[in-house]
Structure formats: C-alpha cells, structure tokens
Amino acid sequence: MPINYQEIYTQIKEVGKGAKERKQKKEDAQKLAQELLERHSSDLDFLRSKVDSAKTADANIRCAVPLDEALASSYPAPDSTSQATLIAADGSQAIADRHSPVQFCVINVGAISLKPNSGETPTVEVESELFFGDAIEENGLTTDGGVALRRDLAERSVIEKMSKGMKGSVVSFTDGTLEIFRAKDIDNANMYRNTVDKYISVLSRLQGRGIISAGYIDKPSSSLVVKLLELTQITIPEEMEKLRNAPPLKYVTDRWLFGYGNKLFQLLPPGHRSAVFKIQSTSEKSYKGVLELHFFYLNVGSEGHPWPVRVEIPRWVVDDKKQLDLLHAVLVEQCRMMGSKPYPYLLHRAHETAVVKNEEKQQIEQMLSLELRRNNEDVEDGSFKQSAKDLKGRTKYG
Hints:
Elements: H1 5-17, H2 19-40, H3 44-57, E1 63-66, E2 85-94, E3 104-114, E4 123-132, H4 134-138, H5 144-162, E5 170-175, H6 189-208, E6 212-217, H7 224-231, H8 240-245, H9 254-257, E7 277-280, E8 293-299, E9 308-314, H10 315-318, H11 321-336, H12 345-354, H13 358-374, H14 384-389
Parallel strand pairs: 2-5, 5-6
Antiparallel strand pairs: 1-7, 2-3, 3-4, 6-9, 7-8, 8-9
Helix pairs in contact: 5-6
C-alpha cells in the first residue's frame, strides 16, 4: 500500500482541531481589511506617501500603489468589441529528463488571432523550439524556473510577430503575469538579465505599434492591495519588521477583498473592474516609462458566483482610456463564452494548441535518438528506474 492512511488520517484530525481558531483569525482579519478599505478608499495621497516611506525602508517591498481612482471603485464593462482583432498566446514545454536516453527540452507556443463577428477564419501559429545537449544548460533550461522564463519570452514574441501589419485595434493577452520573474532556482544572473532585456524589447515594439498587451491571472493568490492596506497599520520604518513577521492581514487575499467568498460586502458586480493600481516591486527598475507595470481586478463570474481575476497591463494601456475599456470588454466577452467556468475562450484555444502531450515527447525522443544513431553518435539507454515505472499495469506515481 503506497500511503499509510492511518498516519495521514491522524494528521488530518490534527488539522481539523485547529479549524475553529483559524476561522476566527481569518474572520477578524477580513473584518479589519474591509474597515481599512472603506476608511482609506479615497485617501490616495496618504496611501502613496505610505508606499514611498515603506520603499525607502525596504527596497524589496511589493504592494499596490493607487493612481487616481478610489480603492473601492467599480466600473462596468463597456460596449461590444466586435471591431477589435484578438491575439492570445500560451506556451507548454517538455523538460529535460535525466532518466531518458537523450537529453532535450522543447518549448512549444501556440497563438491564435481572431476578429470576432467578422466571418474570417482564425489564424493559428505554432512555434516549437528544441534544445539538445549543451544548449540546455547554455540557455538556462536546467530548472523549471529557467524554462518558464524562456517560455514567457516566446509567448510574447509570437504575439509581436503575429501582430505585424495588423490594422485597427489589436488586443493581445497571455496566461499569467505580464511581469516575468527570476525564480529561486535560476542561478544564472546573466541569462536572466539577457532574457528580461529581450522581453522588454518585445514589449517596446508592441507599444510602438499600439498593441494592447495584458497578462491574465486566473485565481490569483497575491495580496498586493491587502499589503497596501497593511501599511496604514504600522509606523514606518520602525515597524517594517512587524509587517514581514506578523502581518495584521495575514489571512486576507486580494481575491477575497474583491469578491470571492466575501459575504461581508460585494465590491465588484459581474463584469465590473476595480480601480487600476501600479505594482510596487523591485522590477520597476526594468519596466520603466510607458512599460511601467499596473493591474486591476475583474469579476468575470456571474450573479451569486463571483470570480475575481487579476489583469496586468503596461502604463501605455492605462494612459489610454479607450484601450483600457476595450481590453475590459474583450475579457468579459471572452470569459462569458466559457459559461459557468469563466476563462478567456481564445486563451483556452491557444493552450489546446500549445500543450505538449506525453506521446509527442516520446516521439521526439525516438526521432532524436534515431538521428543521432544515424550519424554514429552514441545514445545511452534510459534509466532502469524509468523502465520499472513504465512496466505495463504499474499505476505508481513519483
């Protein structure tokens, strides 16, 4: 038996014993968060001054910064978007596996462009990149974080390529943040910096052509606005350590604040967006001027079933109200197409196009092994551990 269910059950019972205490702490924090949101909703100068002071005390602080809209603002979706061209891109990968006969990595990006209600056939683009042998390490693809970084660059690059020559309004979006991160498992600083520089160049070209660009984060877990509210509860810089070690709103997320599971109040009705915020983080050194990163929350759910998502955008979209409204309307329409589980339809299609299936990875492995043998290069056997896992009838994971 692979799992000792008796031990697991005993531990689950211990988890259950703490439920009442956790629930009370969570409810207390949620009540405080609501009070702070209502109290400081229009205190924008005060909130910005708090962020400036916190940034001086801790250069690594990450939180929301209000612009000119009250924190509790709510804006309905604008009218139809039938005249815009939409581009969605998503990526997938097959990561190098030391148990395989040959070491390779594949990054696959699918992108789809569509002009709704035009009768035109969607355009589908798939770009597949193979990395073999030393190229895996040279390109920083030995870790999950390195692969994700390269994939994010590839997604935005495909959008930039597809949008060339397009006339009229173009709205583009990918799954995940617009901001790309240096994951903890990326130890090659030069590779990270080069990738970010290339990414910034792509964004700049998109901005130059007026292409609306966004990152769509489904079920966000961050607390950027909550962190902003927490700053009102401490003396800066004396209590910054307290904010890190014992945050007063520890059990509250932005997602709750903007509607999900929130029985205290409904901030965003279906289809409404929140105020737009700037992202305060160390990445502001890279994303400057019109590329400065911002975000808003959007309730793509239905009445009684809120589903707040976060949408990241560059400043050039924030500064153009027509572009901001167009993006808002596009995302609401796209999510409604998916019914009771709202998600941008075109992103769903892009993911289906991009995903690398296990049988495809195996086929690439066979093709690569065959080509190496054809050219008299040695090909090792796969590991015996993997062979044991692959035995017919085995259901064990890990």
